[in-house]
Amino acid sequence: MRRALNNIEYATWIFGQPYNLLAAIRLQGDVDPDRLRIAIDRAQQCHPLLQATIVEGPGGIPWFDSANVGQIPLLVGEYRSEVDLLDAEKRGNERIYPIFDLAGHEAPRIAAPGSIPPMATVELIRADGFCYLICCAQHSIIDGASINIMLRDILRFYEAPNLDACIDDTMGLEDDLLPEAIRLGLPRDPKGVYRFYHLMRFFIKIKTRGRPRPARYSDYDDRIFGFFTLALTKDESDGFFARCKIESVTVHNAVCTAFSPVFEVINSPVNVRSILARPLEDAIGLLVGGALITRKYDPKLSFWENARQYDTKMQVARRPKKIFQFMQLFSTVVPPARMREIHSFIIRNMASKRPMAISNFGSIDASGIPYNLDGLQVDRYETYVSQTMDPIVVLLATFQGCLQFHVNFIEPMDTRDDMEVTVKNALDTIRRAIQEA
């Protein structure tokens, strides 16, 4: 395959510098590395973007190219302690493209010609009686749904190596799957984008004139990624889901409401698979838009009154034209050098507001990932992202009936102790909301 990146992929590539998404499971039992190698190869054959890398195309614009791209690397290590697992997960996030310039000082790395690996890795960490399987991929080719599809397909082919492969070439052949109404509204001339950018800079300069500049995570030279997981119990999760249904509020928006007393600006990635020109429920690719909500929590109202107001704002923000609004500024008509300039400006100003992102991966239980297969049993799930736009990212996932909060943050601007207090407070807010009259 060889095609240009579409607007969503292009914006993420420039924004990410780049960044990666990771999912890990623990399996009781021993995984055979040779059998796993075959399963990874079969899964890779099903998804064009797992067979590609990004190269410099005409005019310096990045393109997907599968020429000379080899197997997804499989690394096998030995588990000795929880620290080894955390180190493996960090390596996964650093291995594909080890550029994490959070201030945007470096350009994305363009793959060199020759025999090269794809933009994904798999690591198997083995111990006596259990093991960890870690999948990691560059975010320009994968989203939250996709990383679980990758994990699901590897496990399915591990269980049944001769299973018929379902190959969909759409992501490899088509560079624009946006609905026609959205495509017609995209900029066709970079001059319009530049005018919008400079106008935005002018208004922000006027608005912030005379104010002291708040600390930004790009001020720290020793910044590192930190992550941890907390969860509601199954009974608490069941109660929360049931109460959300009664109050006609989505679980995602109720969770955002629980964090809104601390974070007034929350970015919510939106799965757009069902509204594309061609639905792609089972494809691996970057198939998301964004809904940015700014709302102060009103302490005079009950939790559920706040949640319903948040839900109303989200319904507006989730309209297709709103979801893809960022493409008015981040478009493939803008050369990479100017895109990086815009990217750096956004990072400097958005990060100063300490926005967070909350992304809901949905039910892992209903994702098709087999929990029991050929002597193996999945009993743990984690997911993390290396990020640059939002200093704090919470990835929601429901595993074995429990609502999990996978928290990603950047030290030393935010310490683990402070973040654990913040998230525990949000979980306590949810627990009180379940019982609220």
Strand order of the largest sheet: 5-6-7-2-13-12
| Helical content class | 25-40%
Residue fraction in strands: 15-25%
The low-confidence runs, each spanning 5 or more residues with pLDDT under 50, are 92-113
Mean pLDDT: 83
**The level-1 CATH class of the largest domain:** Alpha Beta
Number of strands: 15
Q: In the CATH hierarchy, what is the superfamily of the largest domain?
A: Nonribosomal peptide synthetase, condensation domain
Q: What string gives the helices and strands in order?
A: EHEHEEEHEEHHHHEHHEEHHHEEEEEH
Describe the structure.
The chain has 437 residues and is of the alpha+beta class. The protein folds into two domains: 2-166, Chloramphenicol Acetyltransferase, CATH 3.30.559; 218-364 and 379-435, Nonribosomal peptide synthetase, condensation domain (Chloramphenicol Acetyltransferase), CATH 3.30.559.30. Helices cover 36% and strands 23% of the residues. The chain has helices spanning 7-16, 33-46, 82-95, 144-159, 170-173, 180-184, 190-208, 234-247, 251-259, 303-317, 320-323, 336-350, 416-435, and strands at 2-4, 20-28, 53-56, 62-65, 74-78, 120-126, 130-138, 224-231, 265-271, 288-294, 356-363, 372-373, 376-385, 392-399, 402-411. Helix 2 packs across helix 4 (144-159), helix 8 packs across helix 13 and helix 9 (251-259) crosses helix 13. Residues 92-113 have low confidence and may be disordered.
Which SSEs are present, and which pair or pack?
Blueprint: E1 2-4, H1 7-16, E2 20-28, H2 33-46, E3 53-56, E4 62-65, E5 74-78, H3 82-95, E6 120-126, E7 130-138, H4 144-159, H5 170-173, H6 180-184, H7 190-208, E8 224-231, H8 234-247, H9 251-259, E9 265-271, E10 288-294, H10 303-317, H11 320-323, H12 336-350, E11 356-363, E12 372-373, E13 376-385, E14 392-399, E15 402-411, H13 416-435
Parallel strand pairs: 5-6, 9-11, 11-14
Antiparallel strand pairs: 1-4, 2-7, 2-13, 3-4, 6-7, 8-15, 9-10, 12-13, 14-15
